[in-house]
Write a structure and sequence with these properties.
The structure is a single chain. The chain is of the alpha/beta class. It is built from 17 helices and six strands. Strands 2-3-1-4-5-6 form a six-stranded mixed sheet, sandwiched between helices.
Amino acid sequence: MEDPSDSHPEEIPGVRENLENNDVAAAAARIHEYLERENNIPLNIAITGVAGSGKSTFVNAFRGLSNDDEGAAPTGVRETTSEVTPYPHPNNPNVMLWDLPGIGTTKFPAKKYLKLVGFEKFDFFIIISATRFTENDVKLAQEIQKMKKKFYFVRSKIDNDIQAERRRRDFNEEETLTEIRDDCVHRLRGLGIKSPQVFLVSSFELHLYDFNLLQQNLDRDLPKNKRDTLLFVMPNINPEIIIKKKKAFQSKIKYYALGSAAGAAVPLPGLSIAVDLALLVGAVTHYVFAFGLDVPSLKRLSAKTGVPYTALRAVIISPLAAAEITKELLFKVMTHVSSFATLIVAEEASRFIPFIGIPAAMVLSFTTTYKFLNVILSELAEDAEKVFEKALGQ
């Protein structure tokens, strides 16, 4: 756990100066603005490729949806995307996946494709093929590169290839995957792409093959603020993703604690705990959705894996998972833990001690919020790992 003394409010411009000048209200306002901004960073992901390559299924899988879920991108053997269609992530509407029409169609010819789809709004492109990448795919990648944007080649429907190859007497899955990957890379090189990297993906089983490698590349390539936004909506395909989410959330806890301390600077009974709870509702709600522990996410996971919702729910320990996060629920959880209840009482009492009361209340408020969020975050991360293991039958 991070030590509260290691927090660096100067990371937010102006906060350090506000605190040095004892302008706690201004510091609190800056912290609130920062947290609001961090939690609402837009991310626009373009999914493109030829007709029938599995774009829509990939869009749905990325969003944690099955193809027949409400709000899913329509799929089919024929081209089902005739317009540039946005699909918001169900757990964060600021993250938008754009299902783009196949390149090279009459309506979207290769030469005008980027302009017609409005390339400037996208943070990066994922170019999907179910077989071999085409000249149009390569032309698109080269144009994206000229625009100084990132692109990633995804070879989809790998599960179909593996299933077909299993009939061979000398079948070896690793060798088959290597052959498919090498064939794609060789073809892309032949068409003019230098050092291409191809990710093999099954949209029905994201935890297999190269989806994790794709996530790692996106994590490396995106700027820090966009990186966290993407991470928090990533499906929990392995325990490492859950650990990454936990660490990213931990790095922001100090700001919630500083905002809490600012509330304690005003000598009004009960105000600090009211400020704390308002902050905590936002933070904990974010945790629950990012870990996929809200009721809709758990039900979608149940439908996708065939593991009953009640079985997934049974492995969850935290009273904040699969629940509506309210001030009343958080206060109940806090006061049921004796150490937190003691800190809350001490903070309320200390604010009326002459000269040292307010500074003492601020320290206690910072400590309470900091420790509480760390405990809750650890519990929810553990629950997410248990749900992941249960869903995969481990």
